[in-house]
Amino acid sequence: MKVGVLFSGGKDSCYATFIAKKNDYEISCLISIFSENKESFMFHTPCIERVKEQARVMEIPLVVVKTKGEKEKELNDLEKAIKKAVKDFGIKGIVTGAVESVYQSSRIQKICNKLNLECFNPLWQKEQIELLNDLIKNKFEIIISGVFAYPLDEKWLGRKIDKNFIKEVLMLRNKFNVSPSGEGGEFESFVLNCPLYNEKLIVDSFEDFGEKNSWSREIRLK
User: Fold this and answer.
1) For the chain, which terminus, N or C, has the lower number of CB atoms within 10 Å?
2) Model pLDDT, residue 104
């Protein structure tokens, strides 16, 4: 089946793409929404422009639609992007990286139902520590691109998701109820390398923006 992947460049959408491909879905395109609202309820914003480089190294076409990021209204732009993917690539289904967000998954499912598309959520309800360990086991190289909750701060930006990262987020879950995989919006990520890439992406330079416990890293790639 031809599918389009709702793609943010973060760990979950990349891993969902990986699993979909392993399950013999034909990845016809990636679908990314560029939101002007940094606090979008639906869409990942740190490093979103860099999905163009990720699509290039995966050799998968990319559909981009911009949105102002207004709550609920931004769903119209998502529907527009999916319709474009249907028209341009003949997709019959949508793949998402949803893990626990009922807000996101229910709205995507509603659009898929309206357009008569299958909705495949390969990570849905996956145990979060198991998910992080699977990413490491499958050689996903992931960095933190944004943090948005206490006690996370700018020192977490650029950190790799590795065994030490898992140990620390487990402690934060026990002490501060931080979601280990960032499912509560605590952090965002960016995938520099994974089995889907034909070459590794390398950070050339970066700039950090924010204050207190809300920080984003804008990266530039070589």
Assistant:
1) C
2) 86
